[in-house]
Amino acid sequence: MEKKKASFSGGLGFVLAAAGSAVGLGNIWRFPYLAAKDGGGLFLLVYIILALTFGFVLLTTDIGIGRRTKKSALKAYESVNSKWKFLGVLTFIVPALIMTYYSVIGGWITKYIVVFTTGNAKEAAKDGYFNDFISSKAAPIVFMLIFLAMTSVIVYLGVEKGIEKFSKIIMPGLLIVVVLIGIFSLTLSYKAEDGTVRTGLQGLFVYLVPNFDGLTVQKFIGIVMDAMGQLFYSLSVAMGIMITYGSYVKDDVDLNKSIRNIEIFDTMAAFLAGLMIIPAVYVFMGKEGMSEGPSLMFVSLPKIFEEMGPIGNFVGVVFFFMVLFAALTSSVSIMETLVASCMEKFNKSRKAVSLVMALIYAGAAAVICLGYNVLYFEVKLPNGAIGNLLDIMDYLSNYVLMPVIAILTCVLIGWIVKPKYIIDEVKKNNTSFKREGLYTVMVKDVAPVMLVVLLLKSLGLF
Ligand code: PHE
User: Fold this and answer.
1) Residues linked to residue 379 through DSSP beta bridges, in sequence order
2) Ligand 1, CB within 6 Å, residue ranges
3) Separation of 12 CA from ligand 1 center, angstroms?
4) Does a structural domain hold residue 2?
5) Can you tell me which atom of ligand 1 is nearest the CA of 330?
6) Ligand 1 atom 4, closest CA
7) Max Cα-Cα span within the chain
8) Whose C-alpha lies nearest to ligand 1, atom 9?
9) Residue 383 within any structural domain of the chain
């Protein structure tokens, strides 16, 4: 049994590890498709406002609870207040749900690495290529298994610390590649069938400038709901993960500063991914193409790489490799949470638990893959979206469970143990906490009320 508790070497080690968990497919795959679906600029604006308020409050709370209790989520809530043990159990369900589909998307990334390294960039840029892939029966499962195997081996061997060392190079590298692709996509232009020419700069305008035309209250609430779920998902908050990370942080680390850096890094990554994808989607697929959904990046990026000419193939390889790395650091953090909790609960070894977990998820994720062919169906979800199996999992975790956990966490901290519980933790060692006032109002009043409204809307209750 591993009894000794690991801790990060200092502020930077913590920020890198937390950013490694936070920056992943959520930023690169999920943010752009939601932003595009919700029309670009307005979603971006709402997202940034929410990140500065809700994101900051939830991240501070999770990390604060972790460092103060020095326990992982399952036990941390219980030590905050003995009646709140159930909340720890509830947080466990979120990564358990997310893991069912994270490796499916990880598999899609793995597939594109193979496509680009084998020089098939041209094929991938053709219309319908991605759809043919996900609707085939075996290939998506095979690639998912490869991704899941990589994740499981890292967790099984307990070597994620070794992987994180590479984060220092690969994560900033990924951001640079994303910026370069983004700049390139601004130079694109395309003549549509009806003769109109769409340019990258027009696309940039769509991405950055909020468009209020035809906006109704219902639509606006829908956008806020999407942005909020995305924020939770992207920051890995309201699911216990950041509590666990917080529990590893040494007492002399300036939490306020670390939290700000994690927020900036995560939001920057999402913003830049949007910059890379959305203008290009607008150029090649027009406004109608923007509501493509989860397949958006897989459909649009190969078209950008093709436009780059011969070098495009190489850029594609580099890009998908780096995304794979970002996805792996996130999926490892999800699986690690699940494995660590089960080791504690069932008193079994890391190896045994990881093996069982890998087998369970191989089965679960295969079912999700089949959701695009054999098990294909569409249902109208209570939040108004139309979804298949993968979307249902995504809906349950991001639109239902995370808001519930966030509401309960705010009630616990805002009203039961009082915000001072977290504020004192942040201000330990006399570090400043500039947003203390904002934190208190948000965690007590604003966040719970708004989250309840959004939850009711997600459940289709008004
Ligand atoms: N935040 C990660 C991302 O953006 C995903 C993640 C979800 C990580 C849940 C951990 C837990 O991809």
Assistant:
1) 387
2) 21-22, 24-27, 95, 98, 233-234, 236, 239, 241, 330, 333-334
3) 20
4) no
5) 8
6) 26
7) 68
8) 236
9) yes
Amino acid at site 448: P
The list of the chain residues with pLDDT below 50 reads 1-4
**What ligand 1 atom has the least distance to the C-alpha of 26?**
4
Give, in order, the Cα–Cα distances in Å from 19 to each of 133, 361, 447. Answer: 31, 24, 24
- pLDDT value, residue 80: 97
**Residue 163, amino acid:** I
- CA 59 to ligand 1 center in whole angstroms: 13
Task: Find the CATH number of the domain harbouring 22.
Answer: 1.10.4160.10
Secondary structure element (H or E) that encloses residue 148, with its range = helix 139-157
- pLDDT recorded at residue 160: 82
Q: Which two tokens stand for residue 236?
A: 């890995």
In which domain, by residue range, is 418 found?
A: 11-458
Residues 93-152 have pLDDT tens digits of 999 999 999 999 999 999 999 999 999 999 999 999 999 999 999 999 999 999 999 999
Q: How many domains does the chain have?
A: 1
- To test the pocket of ligand 1, the residue of 147, 263, 328, 330 to mutate (highest count of ligand atoms within 8 Å of its CB) is 330
Please indicate, yes or no, if residue 5 is contained in any of the structural domains.
Answer: no
Do residues 302 and 321 touch, judged by C-beta distance below 8 A? no
Atom of ligand 1 nearest to the CA of 266: 4
Residue 3 lies in a domain: no
Q: How far apart are CA 277 and CA 272, in angstroms?
A: 9
Mutate to test the pocket of ligand 1, among 91, 102, 337 (most ligand atoms within 8 A of CB): 102
Question: DSSP labels for 266-303?
Answer: HHHHHHHHHHHHHHHHHHHHHHHHTT--TTHHHHHHHH
